[in-house]
Each structure stands twice: as C-alpha cells, then as structure tokens.
C-alpha cells in the first residue's frame, strides 16, 4: 500500500492537495500511476487551476505544470464530496467548474469526464481505507457539493509558493498587477 499526493494551485493563489492510497499494480510504478491519475483529473479541473506537484511514496517529488481543461472558472471554496457505490470517501475534488458539475448534477461533458476519471482511479489501484479495511475504489461518483471555510481556502504564503513553484514563478505571480493588493 502506498500513497500518492497531487498538489494543485489556483491562479488566485490557493493551494490544495488530494491524497490517494494505492495498492501495488504489477508492471507500472506508483509514480507513473499517479501521473496517469493527475492527467485524468484535468477534464474535471477548471483552467484557472493547475497541478504543480506529484509526490509518490518512494519516488522523488516531481514538479509539473498541468492546467485544467474542464471549464473556465471554479470557486476555491467549492468542492465535490465523493462516494464509491454507497460508501462515502474522505476525498474532496476541488477546482471543478460549472461546465462539469452544476446544480447538484454532472453535465453531459462532466459525465464523460467523470466516467474516465473513475476508470483511471480503479485501474491505478486506488483504495478506500476505513476502520482498517481496505476496499478497491470501483465506482467513483460525486455525491454533493460542499462549501469549505474561508480558512481552508486562504491564499498560500510566499514561502509556500516558493517551495511549490520555484522563486522565479513565485515572483511573477506575487508581483503581477492582479495580485498586488491581495498579498500580505
């Protein structure tokens, strides 16, 4: 059993992570499966959000720059709670645009993207661990939209951005005209 962590960055400066527990799958490294999972996540992610880091247990941290392709805008406070069949999961998908999920339901585009993502989650050996019981995730579905607290969605500090993006990109973000007033 291993863990993979995907780190996301909103263009407004918020950072969040998704952790996925995975069983060993013969013939494919954990890092390769995590990258596959990240790429499958892009159609469920707004273009104002990108994946900036991938970290798989036992593998070096990988910096990436994978921008969402599912729609234009997502609210940093909005997240989708997930279920596997009838079992709730401790995973929230953030950065999901209205072109994918609106008024409590998946759009036609969202259904296709979510089916592909669910298949990738299953193929990558992702599991749900509850009360020391390990169950493969087989039928991932959105359950409901939740609104996160302001504290959970505050902008990242400059130090945090430096560690995620590197100094040059952090400076570009930090000193861009649209961000000057919002930075502390």
Descriptive overview:
The protein is an alpha+beta fold. It contains four helices and eleven strands; from the N terminus they run E-E-H-E-E-E-E-E-E-H-E-E-E-H-H. A six-stranded antiparallel β-sheet has the order 4-3-1-2-9-10. The longest helix is centred in the middle third of the chain and has 16 residues, at 108-123.
Structural class: alpha+beta
Tell me the span between the first and last alpha carbons.
Answer: 40 Å
Number of strands: 11
Series of secondary-structure elements, N-terminal to C-terminal? EEHEEEEEEHEEEHH
Strand order of the largest sheet: 4-3-1-2-9-10
Strand content: 35-45%
Which overall shape is indicated by the principal axes computed on the Cα atoms? globular
Number of domains: 1
Mean pLDDT: 91
* Percent in helix: 10-25%
Number of helices: 4
Specify Rg, calculated over alpha carbons. Answer: 16 Å
What are the low-pLDDT stretches, counting only 5+ consecutive residues below 50?
Answer: 180-184
Largest sheet: 6 strands, antiparallel
Features:
single chain; 184 residues; 6-stranded antiparallel sheet; 4 helices; 36% strand
Short précis:
With 184 residues, the protein is an alpha+beta fold.
Which secondary structure elements does this structure contain, and how are they paired or packed?
Layout: E1 2-10, E2 15-22, H1 30-41, E3 49-56, E4 62-67, E5 78-84, E6 87-94, E7 101-102, E8 105-106, H2 108-123, E9 126-130, E10 133-136, E11 140-147, H3 158-165, H4 167-174
Antiparallel strand pairs: 1-2, 1-3, 2-9, 3-4, 5-6, 5-11, 7-8, 9-10
Helix pairs in contact: 1-2, 3-4
